[in-house]
Amino acid sequence: MFTLLAFASCAFAAKAQSPLTPGNIVMYVVGNGVDTLSSSAYPVSLVERSVSLQQLLLGKAPIVQSIDVPSVIGNATGNNNVLTAQGTGTYEGQINLSASGKFLVFGGYGFDLTNGVNTGANKISVTSTKANTTNTGGLPAIPRVIGTLDASGTINTSTACTNLFSGFAIRSVVAPLDSVFFVNGSTTGIQRTIMGATTSNSLSSYSATNNMQAPKIDALELIDGQLYASAKDYIGSPRNQAVRIMTVGKLNDTTKNEIVSPVPGIDTTYPSALTTQSYPWQFVQFNVKGGKVMYIADNTLNTAVVERGIQKYSLVNGTWVFNGQIHADGIIDLTGKNDGDKVLLLGSNAKKLFGVYDVTGFNAAPIDTAALVLDTALKNYAFRGVAFTPGTNKITGLPVSLKSSLTASIVNGKAMLTWATASEIATKGFTIEKSTDGEHFNVIGNIAANNKASNYTFTDASFGAIQYYRLKIENKDGSYSYSSIVSLNNKLAIKLVVYPNPVSSTATIAHSQATAGSTIKISSIDGKTIAVYTVQTGATQTSVDASRLAKGSYIVSFENNGSKATALLVK
């Protein structure tokens, strides 16, 4: 499930001609159409395409618009960096929808193309460049860059890490929170960084001997709050246990030094070709009638064996069971959405965009044994990633859509939590969890779901100094996900104070006791309104989501019973 949370949009840099359309797809495309693709750096464009069942049957995916990612410093305005990609690096450019569903996330290189493509000092394999030191020929350090694209068509490339995969390729990026990224490289494990950062830290470092650490990861996926990875490698001590799909860390609690665990039942060779190893890349899971199904993009190329392309599995009694394959030669990237038992899948390799509609549901072989080719890349262009646009109704877990995010306020010395749902289907309820450090949470209460659009309130009377809260949103089939984390600080004086400041994700604002109709407004320095929040009557402290603010300074205004107080917020 992707929980859709309300957020304040902020301008960063490259703007699309129009907002993205929910239900469409976006492709990561490399090249300029002129220069022959090589191992050097090339510009990246994000191409929106229209997809529907009717278009799929006609073998079409018409282009709606193309958004250029900044590739020269002069076009990278504000805090943005350039983001380019290797021309022939077919395993790069994987693109994913964030866990909140607010934006797409992808990776690349901070390789400036002001002096041209594949000329002079720029004629170098970009994946081998150092991220933290001067390269051959006087070429400056090339940081690995993480970019996002939101529903309005706004690109953010402010995250450029100088210690990330230096000398190696950047492959896949996922966003468990709106300001947090997990990213993997070709041989250097999994790293964690935050939006706007210049460094990263290890989530699960690569090891050739330690079975507790990551093998050579190919792709990352976030599914129902669990981080997954794909690989064609071995783990164990000695490393003799083949692994293809694995979990990384604990459900919704992935921080550092995480253990990898292979999921049971995924074939490490092939059902009818035991001498040929599978090579999985991106994959998707869906809840359908009867249980879960998973589709895996496998790019093993061997024309003598037909089991190539999209592999289908179903989770039967805790083990994944192979159901069949849909031929899509050399596929690497994969996305999908479902409508009940019917699943629409889109995937790509460097030259082709594939599409298929699987109608057979749980634990049944696909009827279609070959995907349709919807388009072929033009000369001197290469397809990389593909993902559905933000706002797409992509049902992968809990059928709950939050109308407003979890908000925390101090009212009469107690913590008051509020949230609202836009829809609820087969939802069991909400478990409220509290922490003193933001990492280790304990259950403090439960509220049954109304299974309709509703407003909810929970009061924590045993409120301490600094507390963190989150919701565990539970479904009747046992699946669940988590809300964003909010915090309160009871030690703040009762005046207009922003904490922490600078802020990274959630800002806690202490203010005088609010009367009915009080509001908190966040504005840019030049007076442009960014977001307005209604304050709970009687509250003396309110938490707001600041994760989507660009780096910079903002004015926080608290308007209460005709009076107004302001404070500075720094991101």
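(ticket continues) Second input and output from the same batch:
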Amino acid sequence: MGLRRSPSKATIVANGGARTRMVVPLTDEQERRYKPVDREERQLELVASLRHNQAEMRARLADVAQIGVELKETESKLEGSIVTSKEAAEQLQKFNEEMAGDFELMTHKPRWIKLLDEFQNAALGRSPDQEPTTSNLSKLLCETLALAEPEITPSTAALLSWHPLDKENVRVYHASESFDFPTGHMLRSKAACDASAPIWRVVASGEEELGNAHGLARDSSVARSVAPLKTMHGVTFAALVSGPPAVPDELMQMAARSAGPLLERVWKKEQVKFACYNVTEFIKAAATSQRQLVYVSFEEGATLSDTHLTAKEDPWKWQPFSHTDPDDAKNFQLALRWRLGEPIGVVTVQCGTFTEMNETLLVLLHSAARMLADAVEFIEELTPGMPPPLSTQAAVMNAYELQRKQVGYVLIEMISENLAYFDEGKVFSELKSFEPKVIDDETLALLQACLMLVGYEKKTVEAWEKIQKVLKNPRKIKEQMALVEIGEEINDKAKGRWDAVSKCLRNVDLRELERRGSVPIKILIRWLDGTRCAHHIQLALATEDKVEDNPMANQIFDTIDLDGDGMIQASELVRYMLSEYPSRVAHRLLRILDTDGDMKVSRAEWQRGWAAGLISELLVSHTLTRRQSRESVAESSEGAPPEIGSGRMAGRRTGGVTALTVATAARLHESDAVTDTGKGKGKGKSKGKKKTEGKDEAINKRATDQGSSSKGSSSRGGR
């Protein structure tokens, strides 16, 4: 191809009808445009330009996509901001409602405080309309919640309690009518439901679970609030439940914090009151059985009179025993107090006109006093719901048996403590000033007995002049008075002193001497009487515990004691007796013989029960009852009486008649023989007596043989 010539710009000018062509030069741009170029070069330029445009278009499209993503993100953020603003508005509205509810509750607090003060006064016994008992206070607490928030209806409240060591069972102690469970209902953790779920969580954790913080209707209608009731030591023993609808949380907290210690206090006072009632009834029964007339009472919340309290300040009213009225030795007064000094009450025992405060009554009353003092100390450490001491007459009897064994030492210790208020200076100074003519034989014997008991030799007190010299050192005498030894386990020197005292007082009437003697003489007689009484009581108790071993009783004991540990377990006694007696008889015998309450029978307890006839008495009573029942059945059916050994228990006999049954048969035979002798007219008495003695010997021999055979069969596993 040839090069194309660039056209030139020409201008045609008309000139008189003729056309003239004039050439005009091109500009630089026109020159470049019309400049001939190579076609391939031009194509490459176009391709490059297209590619460049394409890249630019792609970049622009990418920018548009990014802008779209950013627009979407901005849109999401905007939507989130809108939601957040709505939530903020809702929260603000909720906050305003809660603030309004809190301000409303502030107006209710004076009413709450007034009602809780009334509850506190009732719990402290200051309300004449409410007796402070746990049942009354539980009901009053639920009513207090209803009165504190009367706008919340229906009132749904309850008080739940449980044993501190067994939180698997919860009892509804009191509940309002609209509560899910009635009063007395037992909730069990294994049968928990949605309604009781919050209760079990609080029982397990001891932490409150509340649902109406601001007193709003929206929360109250669906909430169930549970607040634990705790003791002064922080131990949870009950729970206060409200709702639905639930009262405000702050009211629940105030009520629970106030009610916990108050209910604990009332519960403990109730247990002490029950213990005092059981002990006073025991004293009445024991005194009546001893044919002694006493008047026993317990005055709750009372304290001792001023006269009794000032006896320690007046040396002339000194008494050896703490609970003796200084103005009336026949009046026993026991003041019970809590550890911090708050009075519980006074137990008073007044002897009748012809009843003296003898050693028997002293053992009974001072043992009871120690029982109650120990019970108060024990109850004060209890958590409400735990089993208290002295709650039954059986528990009182067991405690009495334990206390009476040491009552002599308790009395002598009490005398030693009360000697701190004994004014030896006044007492012995006045005695020392007596003229010889005033000192008669009985007064001299009394002084000699007192001084020899505290360690002075007889030769140093054989005359009044020598006694006067001894009385010049009253402090030494008082110190030795506090060291007098009593009981059986004393050395020979102390026993010699007691023998010397007995010889000195052989012909002395202390009651007459006390009636006509001066005040120092009366005080010395009180001390000597109290010390001798403690000594005689401890000697009697030591003698009582000594029981002569019975070979037959020992043999039967060894037969029953299969494991040879020296103690009869309940299972061993039931296993031994089951062939002849129902299991209830074995358990009853165990309760009778077990004096220390360890649910076992020691060899000493078995021997004491055997010697006292308790074993044979129970079994004879059961045998006679069974015989009468058998006879009545025979009469009603008009047939022959059933044979001995027939019935439900007959199939269990595998080892024959037990030795215990044989011994019981001997006692039963004796009672039958006495009955037959009483019915006769006196004929053949000597013959019957000889015949009875022969039978008794045979029965005793059979019992001994049976005991040996029973031991052998038991060791072989036959019983």
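Agent notes: The CA atoms of residues 547 and 608 lie 6 Å apart. Residues 418-545 form one domain. Closing as not reproducible unless the customer responds.
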